[in-house]
Design brief:
- By secondary structure, the chain is an alpha+beta fold.
- It folds into two domains: 3-79, Roll (PH-domain like), CATH 2.30.29; 83-201, Vaccinia Virus protein VP39 (Rossmann fold).
- Helices cover 21% and strands 43% of the residues.
- It has helices spanning 69-77, 82-86, 102-112, 140-146, 166-175, and strands spanning 3-11, 14-22, 26-30, 34-38, 42-48, 51-56, 59-64, 94-98, 116-117, 124-130, 147-158, 179-185, 190-196.
- The longest helix has 11 residues, at 102-112.
- The chain starts with a strand and ends in a 6-residue tail after the last strand.
Length: 202
């Protein structure tokens, strides 16, 4: 979602100025106190007179966001789908490489229709590389050649594995002249990093 705002937050007996962030999986606030509200715990959201009221679990927090309150409420109540976050639109040429997540593959079928599985088609708009170990990142060079100049290459890997982290993916990408432009939570189990060819090299 990616919204941020300086605001005043109230939670329990505490009130503080600070910075609020609306992310895919949580609402976060950092001031004299820190607050993380997982999206799955949010029961109700109301925007009223510039104040965003969030009921979660047995708690309630208020963010004084001014004119942005209604936008935040709408984003929380109507989150983008996984494919929206990943930039997959109908009509794009999509390829999937590696041990693909079945749930994501099903979503891709529903939105983009037929797509390549197992190897990347030349001229792909979006390529997904499912990686489980650092050695899987050696495929990035060939996949870079498969995407259109303004295309995207998503590396998707299991969360919580020390042998393969975001830093490993980013380092491998940069060694091949790719730049990372977005991180996304693909599911409860999977993280994703979007890689593109720098504009100057397209």
């Amino acid at each position: 979602m990616g919204l941020e705002a300086d605001c005043t937050a109230s939670w329990g007996q505490e009130t503080s100025k600070g910075r609020a962030q609306l992310e895919t999986d949580a609402v976060r606030f950092k001031g004299s106190f820190r607050l993380v509200i997982p999206r799955r715990d949010i029961r109700k959201v109301v925007a009223r007179d510039g104040r965003l009221e969030i009921a979660f679990g047995r708690d309630r927090a208020v963010l004084d966001l001014g004119a942005q309150a209604e936008r935040w409420a709408d984003k929380i109540q109507n989150p983008p789908s996984v494919l929206d976050k990943l930039g997959v639109k109908p009509g794009l040429k999509v390829s999937v490489v590696g041990a693909a997540d079945e749930a994501l593959v099903a979503l891709l079928h529903a939105r983009s229709g037929p797509f390549a599985v197992g190897r990347a088609r030349a001229g792909s708009d979006v390529v997904f590389l499912f990686a489980n170990a650092p050695r899987d990142l050696t495929r990035l060079l060939a996949l870079r050649a498969a995407i259109v100049p303004a295309g995207a290459l998503w590396v998707v890997w299991p969360k919580g594995r020390p042998e393969l982290k975001e830093d490993h993916v980013r380092a491998a990408a940069r060694s091949l002249g790719l730049v990372d432009v977005k991180v996304a939570s693909v599911s409860d189990r999977l993280s994703g990093l979007k890689l593109v060819i720098p504009r100057a090299k397209r």
